[in-house]
Structures are given as structure tokens and as C-alpha cells.
Design goal:
elongated; 8-stranded antiparallel β-barrel; Lipocalin; alpha+beta; 11 strands; disordered N terminus; 2 domains
Length: 432
């Protein structure tokens, strides 16, 4: 199995800015909690979830303050996922096109086993003032000389000390400082634990996943912790997350540097959002390896076949005669599916649901019902509806498809996940 994966990022921008020191009398969080806090600090130390208290007075663009903005999600700066990212007035660029070509690498892996220190984060007396970040930006067409100078100035590391250029302004608390250092030095979170190699010369940047990954376990994790908000990886899902990432998870991962962004956010959460570490199942590094490999194997491809109303009819696996699917695709792309099968005690069972066609794929939210009464006594108000799980249907032609059936947590203890190759039982008049 080739575990090389393309990528880009969820991005934003800044030098290893991370933390100014403020008086804090509280005890340092326990190691596990401190590392988790440090991950959020690395993302955006100004947020409430990261222990922050908002933006400092001297800077209005947060990307000029975030650690990840210059160091990158893979901590390789110019030599990683940010290798081709340009600077704008809204974000620094970690050295691309800058007179300061320092790569901003802070990834201890690949044999470079060093530890960052609090002093290395503070940049006391050597870092820039906050206002020299986005405030230094000048359009190239307006003043080439000032533009070049501003490039360098804006990409300098901020001074996060209490006595330096930003004394008296908002800087990182002692907990934020201590915990971001613990996080960056935490081997289990080093990008080189997840990736055996990161090749920036490829376009997009190529990430090679650690060989310990297990895609089957990754699917279980994705289905249990990600699918509810992000939907099918190949579909632009308009769910609880507002349809992010746009284009679907696979389209997002096919960009420059995104695998390193994904692994950070999927493991530690996104500060001040509903995507907290608790809501995503408190994942481990192994969970991240597994789910990345699973997503890689769902490789985004443009299908040669599009589902139309022509596939409507009865489908089954000839080796499993006695069960099958009735599929009805409307002209507006809405599809209804009835899965006629049996429960674990041999009783007839119907699982029904609906979804929307996307190319050659549709995903069905299945449910089961009870409470109805046969004949003249039937009352629709007596029917109970119970969410059962999902079905992903993929078609390669008018005569061949695949059904991936996944029970939810309420039914997975009884019904197994299964993949069924399906073919037609009934033939249509046409399937164009």
C-alpha cells in the first residue's frame, strides 16, 4: 500500500509567535491537559479556549500573531506545506519572497532532536512590536522599497516578553507559554511521528503516512466521530459544521499542506468552535494515522459515470438472493432507498431512507420504523422512526454498483458493517 498523500492546509499565518509572559498564580495544568492547551495556543493563542483574552492593541490581523502562520501546521515553515504560499496584507508568508529566508523550522523530528525553550518563544528584546506585523504591509505597486522592507518586518517574530517591545500589552500567560513549549516538544504530536516524509518539492506537498496506520480502524473512527458533521468524505456536506471544509473532506485534503493541518485540528480541535477535543472523541496519535490512511484510500476521482433516474429499480447481490435494494432516483437528484433484509433472528426487516445524488455517489440516512397497524386501522401518527445508520452507494455503470452499509452506535452491537457488490434485478427502459 502506497501511503503517500497529497496535501495543503487549513491555513492562516505568522512566525513562531506564540507567547508573552504575564503574571499567573495558578498552578500549571496537568501534563495531558497542558499539551492539549498548548496545541490550541499554537493554533491561536488569542482565543478563549486557548486561555487567551483577545487581540493585543497593536495588531488587528490575528494571523500575524499565530504560531502556525509562519511555522506552518507541519512546523516546517518555508520547507513544508507553506512552500508556495504567498504573503498578503492579511497574512505573513514564512519567508517566501522575503529578504529574511529563515525557514522557521521547529519540528524536532527526522533526527533534529532539539527542544524549544520559553526564551525561544518570548524573543525578549529581539522580536518586533505587534504594530510592525500587518501594519508594515505596503503594496508592491505602491512602493517597491517599502514593500520589501515590510515583508521582512512583518515576518519577524513578535516580542512576547513583558519587558520588550510589547510591554504592557496583551501577551501570553505563563500557562500558555509553558504549555505551548510542552506541546511543541511532545514527541507524540511531532508531525514526523505522523509522517515518515514530507516532500515540499512536490506540488502539492507530498506527505508519507507512518506505516503503522490501519485504514479499517480509521473508517471506524471517521464514522463514529467525524461523519455526523463532515458527511461522506467525497461529498460537499452541508451539515452541522456549515459545510466545511468546502467541497468535501477529500477535495480539501487534495490541496497543498492540508494533511498536516487536518491532523492538528482533528486531534486537538479548533479553539472557540464546536469542534473541541471532547466532541471529536479525544483522539490519539494512532487514531490520526488510521483516519488519514482511510481518507487517502477514498482518493478523490472524477467519476466516469453519473447517477440519473435511469438506475431506478431493484438491485441485489446474486450471491445473496433474498435481500436487496429498491432505488428510486427523482429528476431533482433526490433518491429514496429501501433495503429489504432480515434481522439477526431471521425476521423480515425493511430499512428505508433518502439522500441526494452527487455524481456517481449518494449517501442515505437509514431508519427503521414500528408502531403501524395493518389495514383500515393504520394511523401514520402511530409510526415511530428510529435512525439506524447510513448507506453509501457508488455506481460505476448502469449495471454495477456498491453499497456500504454502516449501522450507527445504537445498532452496531447487533448489525455488522458490510460492503455489498450490487447488480440489477430489473432492467430499465434506458439509462443515459
Amino acid at each position: 500500500m502506497d501511503t503517500r498523500i497529497k496535501s495543503t492546509l487549513w491555513a492562516i499565518s505568522i512566525p513562531f509567535l506564540c507567547i508573552g509572559l504575564v503574571s499567573n498564580t495558578q498552578a500549571k495544568p496537568e501534563p495531558e491537559a497542558c499539551i492539549a492547551l498548548g496545541a490550541l495556543v499554537y493554533d491561536n493563542w488569542t482565543t478563549t479556549d486557548a486561555g487567551g483574552s483577545g487581540m493585543p492593541a497593536g495588531e488587528s490581523v490575528v494571523d500575524y500573531l499565530r504560531c502556525k502562520s509562519c511555522h506552518g501546521w507541519d512546523r516546517l515553515g518555508l520547507f513544508g506545506g507553506y512552500v508556495r504560499r504567498t504573503r498578503t496584507a492579511e497574512r505573513p508568508n514564512a519567508g517566501l519572497g522575503d529578504t529574511d529566508t529563515t525557514p522557521r523550522i521547529i519540528a524536532p523530528g527526522l533526527g533534529n532532536f532539539y527542544h524549544i525553550s520559553t526564551a525561544g518563544v518570548l524573543h525578549e528584546g529581539t522580536g518586533r512590536a505587534f504594530e510592525d506585523g500587518s501594519g508594515s504591509w505596503v503594496e508592491l505597486s505602491v512602493d517597491p522599497v517599502a514593500h520589501s522592507t515590510g515583508f521582512t518586518l512583518g515576518n519577524q517574530h513578535p516580542d512576547f516578553s513583558t519587558t520588550g517591545a510589547n510591554a504592557g500589552d496583551i501577551v501570553l500567560t505563563q500557562d500558555q507559554l509553558d504549555c505551548v513549549v510542552d506541546f511543541v516538544n511532545f514527541g507524540d504530536a511531532d508531525p514526523h511521528f505522523y509522517f515518515l516524509d514530507i516532500e515540499q518539492e512536490h506540488d502539492p506537498v507530498l506527505y508519507t503516512i507512518n506505516a503503522a496506520a490501519n485504514s479499517a480502524a480509521g473508517k471506524v473512527f471517521y464514522d463514529g466521530n467525524c461523519r455526523a458533521c463532515h458527511g461522506d468524505p467525497a461529498v460537499d456536506f452541508q451539515g452541522a459544521n456549515g459545510g466545511k471544509p468546502a467541497g468535501g473532506m477529500l477535495a480539501y485534503l487534495a490541496q497543498d499542506g492540508k494533511y498536516s493541518e487536518f491532523v492538528h485540528k482533528a486531534r486537538w480541535g479548533i479553539p472557540d468552535t464546536i469542534m473541541t477535543r471532547a466532541t471529536i472523541g479525544t483522539p490519539t496519535s494512532q487514531d490520526m494515522l488510521d483516519v488519514m490512511l482511510y481518507l487517502q484510500e477514498q482518493e478523490f476521482v472524477v467519476p466516469d459515470f453519473d447517477v440519473t433516474s435511469g438506475i431506478s429499480g431493484t438491485w441485489y447481490d446474486p450471491e445473496r438472493s433474498g435481500e436487496g435494494f429498491m432505488i428510486d432516483v427523482a429528476k431533482d437528484g433526490i433518491v429514496a432507498v429501501s433495503f429489504y433484509t432480515f434481522d439477526m433472528e431471521g425476521r423480515q426487516m425493511w430499512i428505508i431512507g433518502a439522500g441526494t445524488v452527487n455524481g456517481n455517489v449518494f449517501v442515505i440516512d437509514f431508519e427503521v420504523t414500528d408502531g403501524g397497524i395493518y389495514g383500515s386501522a393504520f394511523d401514520p401518527l402511530l409510526v415511530n422512526h428510529y435512525p439506524w445508520g447510513t448507506g453509501k452507494f457508488t455506481f460505476t455503470s448502469c449495471d454495477a454498483g456498491k453499497a456500504e452499509i454502516t449501522p450507527n452506535a445504537n445498532y452496531s452491537g447487533v448489525f455488522e458493517t458490510q460492503t455489498i457488490d450490487i447488480s440489477r434485478l430489473t432492467l430499465p427502459e434506458s439509462c443515459n
